[in-house]
Structures are given as C-alpha cells and as structure tokens.
Amino acid sequence: MDLAVVWFILIAVLWTGYLVLEGFDFGVAMLLPFVAKDDNGRRVALNTIGPVWDGNEVWLLTAGGATFAAFPEWYATLFSGFYLPLLLILVALIVRAVAIEYRGKIDDASWRRRWDWAIIASAWIPSILWGVAFANIIRGVPIDATSTYTGNFFTLLNPFALLGGVTTLALFLSHGAIFLALKTGGEIRVKAEGLAKRLSLGAVVVAGVWAVWAQVAYSVTWTWAAVGVAAIALAGAWWFSLKGRFGRAFIASAVAIVAAVVLIFGSLYPDVMPSTTDAAFSLTVANASSTHYTLTVMTWVAGFLTPVVLAYQAWTYWVFRRRLSVSDIPAHSEPTFAKA
Amino acid sequence: MDVLELARWQFGITTVYHFILVPLTIGLSILVAIMQTAWVRTGKDSWLRLTKFYGKLLMINFALGVATGIVQEFQFGMNWSEYSRYVGDIFGAPLAMEALAAFFLESTFLGLWIFGWDRLSKRVHLATVWLFAIGTNLSAYFIIAANSWMQHPVGAVYNPKTGRAEMKDIGAVLSNPTALTAFPHVISTAFLVSGTVVAGIAAAWLVAKHHEIGAAKPTKAQTADRTLYRTALRFGAVVMLIAGIGVIITGDLQAKMMFKQQPMKMAAAEALCQTETGAQFSLLTIGDLSNSCADVTHVLTIPKLTSFLATGDWNSTVTGVEAIQAADVAKYGKGDYSPNLAVTYWSFRLMIGLGAFSAALAIAALWLSRRGAFPHQRWFKRLALIAIPTPYLAASIGWIFTEMGRQPWIVAPNPTGVDEIFLLTQSGVSSAVSAGEVLTSMIVFTLIYAVLGVFWYRLMVRYARLGAPEVEPPNKKDPGDGPLSFAY
Fold it and tell me: Could you give the CA distance from residue A172 to residue A30 in angstroms, rounded to a whole number?
C-alpha cells in the first residue's frame, strides 16, 4: 500500500485514540455538576480520570505532530484556516490542564469551586468545537490555488457543522456518563447510571441524524457500513445502559466513536481537505503528504512505538481499574489559606 | 503592527513563558527520582520526605509546563503555515517522534507516579518516576534537534519543483552537531535551575529553623528537619556545581561551533563590526547598536579574547558584521542580513553574567555547610532567595539570544554544508491569517498565561513555605486496598 495512505489511516487511528479516551474525560468533566452535589462527590468523579487524563490528551498532540510530519500541507492549511476555533480549543485545554491539577492544591471551598467551573467549561468548549471542525473538514471549506483557506470564522458556523458539534457533545456526554457508571460506587454511581440511560438515547438520535446527513451529502457508498456500525453500537450502548450492563455499554459507545472516525476519514478519502472553491484546489492524500523517505522513517518509528504506548497505557487502566467511591478519597492534606 | 510582527511577538511570548517552566521539570524530575531511589535503597524517612516535598513542587510546575506546551504543537500551523509547508517534510518528524516517544511516556507515568504510591510495589513505583523523568529529558532532545535544524539545516535538500525542503537523512537530522552541543547546554542549564531551586529552598529553611530553635535545645523533630534540609542543600549545591561546569564547557563548544555555522550571530553577539585579527572581547559598548555599525563604540574591552573564544587561537581572524553582510547580499540578494545588534549583544552578556552569579550560591552553600555545620546566616538566606530566579533568567535570555540572533532567517543558511535551504522569517508567516486574528490570540494567550502564572507562583511559594511533609508509615496492606494516597 502507498505509504501516504498508511499515514492517512494512522492519523485516523490517532484521532480515534484521542476521541475515545478524551471523550470520556470530557464527558466526566461536563457532568460534574449533575453527578455530584458536594466536593467529595466531585472529587470521586474527577479522580476516575485522575491518573489517565493527561496521557489521554497526548493522543491529540501526537495526531497534531503526525499530521505535521506526514501531511505538512494539511497541517498548515487546517490550523491557519481554522484559526479562531482552534484558539478556543487551545485555551480550553490550557485552562483545563491547570485546573485539574490545581483545584485540590489549596483547601478552600471557593478556590475549588472556581477551578471546578473552569474544569467544566473547558470540557464543554472542545466537546462542541471538535465536532464543528470535523464536520467542516468533511463538508469542505474555501481553499484557493495556493492551499490557503479563504473563508473566515463565520464560514465555519454552518448548520451541518453546528449539528456536528452537537453530535460530538452528545457522544462525549453519553460516553462519560457510561464511564462514570462503570468506575464509581455509591450515590454517584446511581446518578451516573440514570444519566447514562438518558444521555445514550440522546446520542443515538443526534449522532444518527448527523451521520446520515454526512453520509448522504458528502460520502461514498462503502461508508454506509460505518454508519450502520455506529447506529448498532449507539443503540447497543443505550440498550446495555438500560440493562445495567455498563461494561458492554462502554465498549459499544467506544465502537460508535470508532465508527464515526471511519465515516469521517472514509468520506474524506482521497482528499484530506476538500476545497469548495474548486475541486482542483483540494488537498489530497497524494498532494499534501511528505516525501516517501520521510513517510518511511515515520512508519518505522510509529510501527515500533505505538504498540509500546498502547501496552503501557492499557497497563495504567489495569492498575487503576477499581471503582472509586467517597470512602476512597483521602481528606485534603493540602494547606489551607490560614496555614500558609 | 502587521501579521509578521504580531506572530513573532506571540511566538516569543508563548515560548519564553513555556521555557520558564521547562528547565525545572527536566532537571527536578531526575533529582526527585534520585531522591526516591535513595529512599528505596536506604529506607530513610528523610529521603521520602524530600521526595514528596520536591515532588509536589514538580507537579505544580509540570502542570503549567504541559498546558503551555500544547500551544507549541499547533502554533507552527496557525501562525507559521508557510514555514510549515516549507520545512514540514523534515521539521515535523522530530515533533511527531517527541509526542510518540516522550510525551506519552512522561504523561502516562506521571499519572502512575502520582496516584500509584499505594497501588504499586515500591520498585515498580520507583520505575514510574524514572520513566517520567526519562520522558521529559527525551522530549528535550527531539525539540532541540528540531530547533537545531532551523539554526543549521542538515540531512535535507531543496526541491526546486515543489519549492520545499526535503529530508534525505534522518540520522543526520537527529545527530546534527548543532543539536549535539545545544542539548547538553540546555540540559546542564536545566540542572543548574533545578539544583538552585532545591538548594535555595533548603537554605531558606535551614536559616529559618536556626532562628526557630534559638538558644533552646532542638527537639527531635527540629533536628530531623535540620538534617534533612542540610542534605537537600548539599545535594542541590553539588548538582549546581556540576551543572555549572557543564554549562560553561558546552557553552564554549557551542560558541566555537556557532562562529563557523552562524558567523553573523556571533559577530553580532560581540558587536564586532569590522573584521579583526586578534579580535577584542567587549565588556561594554555604547552607541545606537540597533541601527548600524557606524555608531558602535567599545569602551571596555579585553584584547584578543573574542578570537580565542571563537577558535582557541588568540591571533585568529574573526569576520565582522559588515563583511558578512556584504557577502550575504552577494549570495541572497539585497536585504539586511544582520540581527538586532543591541538584543544580541546584551542578551549574550546577560546570559553569561547571570549564569555565573548562581554559582556563587553553590560555593557559599558548600562552604557554610562543611563538616556537618548548619548554615544560619541571614545573608545566606537572602542570597539563596535572590539566586533562585537568576538561572531562570539566564536560560530565557539564552534562548532570546539564539533565536533573535538567527534573524532575519527562520531557517538560517548552512555555510558549512549544502547551502541551499534557507527561509526568511517574513516568508514563513501564515497567509490565511489576519493581523486581527493574531492580535486576538496574542492578547488571549498573554492574559491567560499571566493569570495562570500568578497561581503557579503562589502555589510554588505556598508549598515551599509549607516545608517537607511528615510521612505516614507505608501502607502494609496489599497494594490496591484502602483509600487513594493522593486525589485531586
């Protein structure tokens, strides 16, 4: 197979890793106000992702770096074109990383409450914007003969893209609720289970509509298979949630996100960024990629390192496999304002 | 200001800010791993307390370092898309390798380390902190290899058909001599910063403990505390000394190499306008450095030192700014190929001066704590606290020197190899982006960084003032039982 195609698939894999893993991180954070009333409850929810969220986010950095290395033109056009939405995402990710780490560093209710709001807001923003971005990539944006994006911020706010944003939002909310139902005990588990049942139904409806729209308007025949798998998986996530089988519901929910990425990348191929100005200006797998030599080097590197990363990340999930409840959370040992 | 100027300011602000956090993470991760190793080996509570004490500071620092690092991965595409197109075939590779080999390692194993105290066996837990520390250092290598390629492009050719640089030899890119000297320089600087932080905080605590005890007989806990901070002080001071020597040796190697690879940068660093044999080293220069060579007047100089620093020969000839400028015009066409002289000249001197200052603390610390003594002098505490920011400043200014000194190039031509790959900074900026957009993002990042920086500083100070925590006896039950030992 052509190495550029291999890298197109690899980048899809990296995005899959990011969306599946950070998807529940975002979901958990977005649901904080709904699953927990007090600080201990919020800490239980937050610490289900505590040891892993940072490693999950690296999938995004790797997707970014890999796009730069394998498809420099794509990297350049996409990130300079989607400037303001990307800025918002970056701001959210910056604030989020600091908020999660700093919230417990001072034992003071108002300090924690403020950081909690930062954690919640910085999960809602990217959850919506990633969908907006991907929907726009599928739909195509104005790109001129020099591979330069010629639209503006409002070009990106079209109905298809906005529904795409609601779709990733619905998927992550459902994914996060199912994850919480799987990873917590006690009162929070009860709340998370209730939310999972309702949110997984919401995901079926919203994502279903968007997927069919994407398929009919922008895709090729074979991706109907992805739409089908996504539909079955989403329905499965809902069904297993209703039955209280959250392990299976989580797998189904993850499969649905995988199918969504397959639909997105399948509909793009052989383009990586279609131009609405003129199809001749579209960035394609062939014309946006690096040279054969660079792709060969990167294939060796990725082929060797990706399994290693998967192995130690999987081990992390194994180490922290236990459910968390309020009794697992240690008292704040951090300094209070008075002490410091 | 236009897109170019704004994009340059934004890159400068976000990168200098990011690099305030990076050296401490690089160095302290290893130092904390050494402390934890000492605890596992000796079983002494004091090492565990030091591990937890400095480990907490490391976490506070790492969080903001990671957060501000995210921008770096995307900023090239956002503001410098034409640069990204030109160099992506080469420059993207070390960035992707950095993410795959280093970012995953450090982030995943940091999570295991923080949350794994009672979940993993002692030895496995020790391995997690080492893997985290190796990850941070590995990431430094890849990003320096990428940066070194911009200073001295190797392993690549220019493809006139596509107008892009293309990679021919990844081995050459990763073993770029520029990277092989820059990496140890940056790493020794990181250890200088980290050793200063460890020793500086310990020094302040030792003096405070002395005054707390006063004339009374110290309690058992006070004696334990004093012994522990003395250990930290000497440990930090030894690290500073070794790192300081490393900084000097690698800095000298780098300067000699730079005279060959980037003669314009070094000529500007010396404000050496005319070519000189037995060139003098200037300590003080007056005149309007920023505009032209005509106004430069050296008022305090050491004869022949620049020639010696450049080649090791007191009487060698060093080419001046004007001669290099003339040669560049002949080669690359009309234009100004010299960097801002004032910035380059003064940043070079400040970097060296500030670096030398922090060595004073190391020597004072080792002297005052000799033969089991506990330092107690108030001036020593003051010196320690003043010394902490100096290597930070030296490191930031060093980067400002090397990046500003590369201008007007974003990829500087390679005079010692294949001289066909080069790009002016003004040609690298994004064409799809408006000045308003860049201004918006610059303001947003600056404000957010400022606010987060205040929180970072307050937490660092707060936890430093809290002192080394008491430690619980280790959890005797099976790993995996009982509450988490740490939770957000």
Answer: 9
| Domain tally, chain B | 1
Pair B49, B230: CB distance under 8 Å: no
Q: Tell me which residue has tokens 């780490």.
A: A101
Q: Do B100 and A98 touch (CB under 8 A)?
A: no
Range of the domain at B81: 3-261+378-388+407-466
Domain boundaries, chain A: 3-139+152-328
Which residues in A lie closer than 8 A to residue B99 (C-beta atoms)?
A: 58, 61-62, 64-66
Collapsed DSSP state (helix, strand, coil) of residue A275: strand
Sign, CA dihedral B366-B56-B28-B25, equals negative
Q: Are A273 and A137 in contact (CB under 8 A)?
A: yes
Tokens standing for residue B320: 């001046």
Question: For A81, which residue in chain B has the nearest alpha carbon?
Answer: B432
Q: Is B254 helix (H, G, I), strand (E, B) or coil?
A: helix
Q: Note whether residue B173 is domain-resident.
A: yes
Which residue, among B427, B162, B71, has the nearest Cα to A95 in the 3D structure? B71
Cβ-Cβ contacts under 8 Å, B116 against chain A: 51, 319
The complex's ipTM works out to 0.92
Q: Is residue B106 part of a domain?
A: yes
Which of B367, B23, B17, B19 shows the shortest CA–CA distance to B194?
B23
A284 strand-pairing partners = A271
Per CB-CB distance under 8 Å, the chain B contacts of A316 are: 108, 111-112
Could you read off the pLDDT tens digit of each residue along chain A, which spans 340 residues? 699 999 999 999 999 999 999 999 999 999 999 999 888 899 999 999 999 999 999 999 999 999 999 999 999 999 999 999 999 999 999 999 999 999 988 888 899 999 999 999 999 999 999 999 999 999 999 999 999 999 989 999 999 999 999 999 999 999 999 999 999 999 999 999 999 999 999 999 999 999 999 999 999 999 999 999 999 999 999 999 999 999 999 999 999 999 999 999 999 999 999 999 999 999 999 999 999 999 999 999 999 999 999 999 999 999 998 888 888 888 776 555 444 3
User: Within 10 Å of residue B163's Cβ, how many Cβ atoms?
Assistant: 9
State the count of interchain CB pairs (< 8 A) between A and B.
254
Give me A321's structure tokens: 């496999």
Cβ-in-10-Å burial (0-12, 13-18, 19+) of B334 comes to exposed
Q: Is A62 exposed, middle or buried (0-12, 13-18, 19+ CB in 10 A)?
A: buried
Stretch B32-57: mean pLDDT, rounded? 95
- Does A121 contact chain B (CB < 8 Å)? no
At the top level of CATH, which class does the domain A3-139+152-328 belong to? mainly alpha
Neighbours of B116 (CB within 10 A): 23
Residue A146 dihedral angles phi and psi, to the nearest 5°:
-95, 20
Are residues B70 and A328, on separate chains, in Cβ contact within 8 Å? no
d(CA B78, CA B429): 9
pTM for this entry: 0.93
Classify residue B252: in a domain, yes or no.
Answer: yes
